[in-house]
Amino acid sequence: MKIMNNRVTISVALSALLTILSCKDKKEEKEEKVVYPVTTVVQMDTVITKDYVAQIQSLKNIEIRAQEKGFLEKIDVDEGQFVQAGQTLFRIMPQIYQAELLKAQAEVEQAKIELQNSSTLASNNIVSKNERAMSKAKLDAANAEMKLAQIHLNFTNVKAPFSGFINRIPLKVGSLVDEGDLLTSLSDNTGIYAYFNVSEPEYLNYQTHSAERGNDQVSLLMANGELLPNKGTIANIEGEFDNEAGNIAFRAKFPNPHQLLRNGETGKVQMTVPLKNALIIPQKATYEIQDQIYVFLVDKTGKVHSKNIKVAYNLPDLYVVSEGLTANDQFLLEGVQKVKDDQKVETKLQDPKIVLQSLKLKAD
Known about the structure:
6-stranded antiparallel barrel
C-alpha cells in the first residue's frame, strides 16, 4: 500500500511538472511572436532651415592711421566711445606744418606783387608778355604750395570720416608717430554683414530653385542662442569657390538699429534650403554604432538586415537621407534595439505619411 501511494505521488508530480513546462513553452512561444511595425521612406519636395556658422563684420570698419609724422599731442576720444562724423580724434604736433604754411602764404604774397609789377610793365611795353606769363606761373606754383602746406597741417588734426565706435587705441600722448602708424579703428554698427560658407551642392540648389525659396530673407542666431529681432537678406555671393574647402562665401546684410552686434562677433545664419525629392525617415527607426547611423531593412522573407545610411540633414525627429535607402525599401520603425542581423520577424506595414504626422518619439 505504501509503495502504491509513492507511485501515485510521483505520477502527480510528473504530471504537474509537464503541465508547468508546457505552459512555459506556450508562454515563450507567445512572447516570441512579436509583430514589429515597418514603414517606407517618404519622398517629397520640402524646404528646411539650415544653420551656417557666420563671422560678423560691421557695415563699415576702417583703420585710422597717421598721415603725418610727429608727436601725438592730444587724444580727444576714449576706447569704445561713439563719435560723430567730422569729430576730432587725435592731434599730432602741428608746429612744423604751421610754419610751412606761413612760409607758403608769404611766397604767394610775393608772387602776387611780382605779377602785379610784370602786368604794369607789360602794359607799357617795358617788358614782354612772356615776362608777365612767367610771373603768373610763379603765382600759381606758390598757391599750389600753400594748398599743399594747408593739407599737411590739416592731416595733423585727425577726424572721424563717419559716425561710429572707437576701438583699441594702442598709442599714448607723447608717442612719436610716423606716417602710416595705426592710431585706432572705427566701426559703423548701424548695420552688419554676416559672412558664411555654403557647399557647392547647396549653392547650386540655392541658385536654381529660387521659386521654391520664395525670398532671400535669412535669420541670425546670436552667440547667446537668441535670434536677432531683425531679419536680413542675402546681399552678395563671392565670385569663385575655395578649391581646398569646396565651398563659396555668402554675405548677408542685417539691420542693427540698436547696435547690439559689434565687429568680430560670431553667430549662425539660418537659411531656408529647398530640397527636391528628399528621402525622409523617422529618427527612431535608426541606431548608431561608432558615429555611423544604421537602419534594419526587412526583406521579402521577413529577415532583417542592418544597413548603413548617410544623413544629409538632421531635423526634429527626422533625418533626410542622402545615401543607403531607396523609396521602396522597408525598414523597422520600432524595436531596432531588440533584433539582430538576419533575424526573422513578423511585421506590419504602416503608412509612412501617417507615421511622420505622429512623430515625437526617438528610437527604442
